[in-house]
Amino acid sequence: MEHLCVILMLISKTLIVKAQFNGFNCDGNFHSRFPAERDISIYCGVQTITLKINFCPVLYSGYTDTDLALNGRHGDAHCRGFINNNTFPTVVLFSISLSTLEACGNSLVVSTAQGANAYGNLSLVQIGNIAGYIDTPDPPTVISYLPGLLYKFSCSYPLEYLVNNSQLASSAAAISVKDSNGTFVSTLSLLLYNDSTYVQNLAIPMAGLTLKTRVFAAVKATNLDRRWNVLMDYCYTTPSGNPSDELRYDLFFGCDKDPQTTVFENGKSQMGRFSFEVFRFVKHKNQKMSTVFLHCVTKLCRADDCPMLLPICGMRKKRDVSETTGTASDNAVITAGPIITRSDETPTNNSQLAQLNGPQFKMNSVTSTLISAITILGIMSMCFFILCLTLLRGKRTPPTSLSGAHNPAFS
What we know:
Layout: H1 2-20, H2 28-31, E1 40-44, E2 48-54, H3 55-60, E3 69-70, E4 82-84, E5 91-97, E6 107-116, E7 122-135, E8 150-158, E9 168-172, E10 175-181, E11 188-193, E12 209-210, E13 214-221, E14 228-238, E15 249-253, E16 256-257, E17 262-265, E18 271-277, E19 289-302, H4 306-309, E20 333-342, H5 365-395
Parallel strand pairs: 8-10, 12-20
Antiparallel strand pairs: 1-2, 2-5, 3-7, 4-5, 6-7, 7-8, 9-10, 11-13, 13-18, 14-15, 14-19, 15-16, 17-18, 19-20
């Protein structure tokens, strides 16, 4: 009889659990509990932040998906999530657009701190932190037998030297907290153009660009919320595609600028623009062509904050190309290239002319052959002329006198 009672109790308990999760992909053996830390996941994207909450503990706690809302906005349908029952377990998804994140009460706080970057220079660095929470409504009574559910989240976006993702999570009772990092690096690109209109992309001929050809470059942000501007902090070149190459030449770094480099726009929009004249690296002296790779380290700043982040002139020292610097393996550096240059022709644009002590003119094979043929022809002509003069002089020589008696017959 006791065994029968135990069996009946197990059967009734199973039926209750099945009825409780009826229609949802939940397992009563794992999800008959209050929410925990592992029940929320967050993806900090470039355009949207996506939150995913395990719906089964929510259901076990006595709530439905419509009871969950962002930042207490339970009366606004746009601030609620939606059920996805095609996964195990069933989840509630929230999608927060970065362009309208304040609509549901999420907060954006940009903090500024001064610190040394990977190159050992002091720099003002900003970090954008987007935070909020998801909760259940309070009952209109004095007491409640249902636990209040609260999910806190935040996304931290470093706006310079975008670092690797890191997470911090803690939970207590029915409260779950999840923090995560995002990156905007996929929105940034470094492009090369033919002229100052920045319309036509630079076309590099097979033989390479002539030295001192002016190239126009731009760091652009695409698919990024309009509140962020692009601020170019440091642009330099290397002979290889490795941004950490110890051999480098700075185009501009803070207030220091190469004489042939011109910065047109920086920190005023979602595009930074500058130009420079093509050169060659001396290490390529035994090669017909030289390769130049362009790299730019950028900041993203709010439009109102960009003027504050512009460098203060006179505080930074320009590094020589031979100076050893720190590596940039942990930094998001945008690269373009290679820019292929050739040094066997004189530029035809309106850039500065080459120095008088520049490399001597080098004859090609056709010119050398023609000069050799003309020289040989001249020598042969001279020899022929001398031979003709010798023959003519021989004919004009008077006859020699004959010896013997005079013959009167010829008188």
